[in-house]
Amino acid sequence: MKDIVFISHANPEDNYFAFWLSSKLKQAGYSVWVDINNLVAGDSTWPEIEKIIREQTIRFVAVISNTYINKAKTPGSGIRKEISCASVIQNIPNFMVPVRLDQSKFSDFNIDILELYATDFNDNWKQGLTKLLSDLEVLKTPKSSNDSDIHQFWINALKINQDPLQKTEQYRTNWFEILLPKNIYIHQPTLLQNTTSEPSYKYVNYADRFIAFASEEIVSKSISLQSSVKVPITLFSCSNEYKIDNTISIKRPNYLLVQLLNSILRSELLGRGLSVYKQANKKEVFHFDFSEEHIKPVSLKKFNKARRTIIGQMKNFVWHFGISYSAALFPKPMFKISYHIIFKDDKGNYLSKEDQHLLRRNIGSDWYNRKWLETLLAMMVKVSNSTTDDFIEIPVHQSETLRIMISPIVMHSDVGYSEPNE
What we know:
21 strands; 8-stranded antiparallel sheet; 5-stranded parallel sheet; alpha+beta; elongated
């Protein structure tokens, strides 16, 4: 009985997806064949592959990508031979089942596949898999897999070494270093002052004083000061208590500095045009609104990575990559930046909390750590509004600036592991 689901794909370019799809189909009970040894058309095993397609295969799943299309055009390539062999199978209805992996154009598909309906995995692997499994059920594709160890198949396919390796590895965090101004100022305004406008600088209050990066010269232009003290930032940030004079000491000055940093970044993000979405727990998430400019992919060339988008347009909604943050001073001054996905309808209105939750579980479920990290990097580049600068620069006092590095802090380990692409 013919019961094999044959996976035809571009090897090695689309290996990861092909092996992922194979493992999911095996898990669903299907008997799957996929090339895990990078065979080529001239190999001595090609007659065996041809025999599998002709005599044992019930469904021929072609994983369409730009690479697959180009290889299919190459005379004598393995993909071209597989498609040619599959195209002569006429006695099995719906024998060829194409799936689209990337943004390849349907019009570029091989002539044998062009008129067939292709299940789209480009936007969401989970949704694509759900549709493909449904189609296989409708087509009454037999299940006969005796594969009980899917995990071992995955290890063998990707040639994963499970043992720890004695090698130095780098791990990017979601911590972004802050380069602080050299000094901070503690101001005491003259009593009983009425101020009608918000100052241009950010500050935090403590008793009858306020703390800011703005100097006495700047502050005194808008309000009258009774006293002003300049404090080295290293001393202020590392003290558990800072004595201003004989009448007052500041408890936990590092906590006040964290408050000030959070306030400065919030103001800067709003000033750069980001919008705020408040989650159910009142946490603020900052994101760019939909526009022709903001939906363009962001170049990550400085990180030696591909482009990433921070906004995606789907059929009935738009997703926005968003960030929240909290300042910290240990082990060094930094912002801990968390990432989120926010959803709006096609009119720009936020979806309900319930819909946000459901879509977040769906859209983000197939984002691996690498995609989350790269999209976060794209967001930082977008906020910096520069493809060349390595930081987000925020003026805080005359020529003084606060800088947030857009490359995250890197941790190092003397022990590593083998990744699939190594």
